[in-house]
Amino acid sequence: QVQLVESGGGLVQAGGSLTLSCATSGRTFSRYVMAWFRQTPGKEREFVAAISAGGSLRYYGDSVKGRFTISRDSAGNTAYLQMISLKPEDTAVYFCAADPSRPINSGTYYYTATYDYWGQGTQVTVSS
User: Is the pLDDT of residue 76 over 90?
Assistant: First the structure.
């Protein structure tokens, strides 16, 4: 059974930090592009960050560049999102996703439709 399980969300004050984790199972996720998206009520899911299968290429949404860092463990099966200097506008449900089909340099990493597998999400709330 394919599973992506996010953890690490919570309530934090503006300027604080959190690290999200995405644990995977059921496939060889080390071969897949992994990504983080976020969503607030009434809005479309927004691209946050993506990392290549080998971990050498990383891409970020404009709103999080310089503050968020995506990584994956050496086995490639767990993805992380380190978030610093958090702002109230970072408040959202954060989802991890995996794409088994395309290399990250295909240029499609920021589309939700690219990803076949999704987690259930973890809430991040940043208070002002």
Answer: no
What is the spatial distance between Cα 59 and Cα 87, in angstroms, rounded to a whole number? 20
Six token digits for residue 62: 């404009």
Q: Could you give the CA distance from residue 122 to residue 19 in angstroms, rounded to a whole number?
A: 11
Long-range CB contact pairs, 103-107, < 8 A, 24+: 103/33, 103/52, 103/53, 104/33, 104/50, 104/51, 104/52, 104/53, 104/57, 104/59, 105/52, 105/57
Q: How many CB atoms lie within 10 A of CB 59?
A: 19
Distance CA 34, CA 38 (A): 14
| pLDDT tens readout for residues 16-27 | 999 999 999 998
